[in-house]
Amino acid sequence: MSRSFKDLPNKLTRASGVAALLLMAACTMPGRQTVNTPPPPPPASAQASVYQVTFAPGSFEIDVAGQRAIEDVSSVVDGNPKALVTVVGRTDATGSADSNMKLSQKRAAAVRDDLISLGKIPAARVDTAWTGEVKQIVGTYNGVPDARNRVVDLYIH
Fold first, then answer.
1. Strand order of the sheet with strand 85-90?
2. What are the mean pLDDT values of the chain's consecutive 10-residue runs (157 residues total)?
3. Tell me: domain 49-156, CATH 3.40.50.11270, correct?
4. What integer pLDDT is reported at residue 146 of this predicted model?
5. Is the separation of the CB atoms in 51 and 156 below 8 Å?
């Protein structure tokens, strides 16, 4: 028995050598990423995180659910110093195009101001836009109200 224990270090050395060779071969196989290769960039189709604040008809007041969404965005961006936020105000098709454009601007400004007032995101990292009834989420006929279009979208990218 003592003889088999004597040969054990040699057997282990050979086994570890074979394992090392197999590992090196596996790392150089096509399709494998090596340590010195940077990871591939995200696909071009990668989407930003989207949050929504909904509004009552004709209003730009933020309700409790909207405030929670804004707080969520603030927390996510606070944890990522490179993240940017785009705020986009929208309306449904009720009312004139001019009044809807103004209302979507007021909604976007209200959400932006609330987001910045939480103190976690500098104003320079928040971009604001508004579309009125032009780029609705749900296409409707003119004058048809749809709550899904009375929103401000917050995109984190």
1. 49-54, 151-156, 85-90, 126-132
2. 47 49 48 40 56 95 97 93 94 89 97 96 95 74 76 95
3. no
4. 78
5. yes
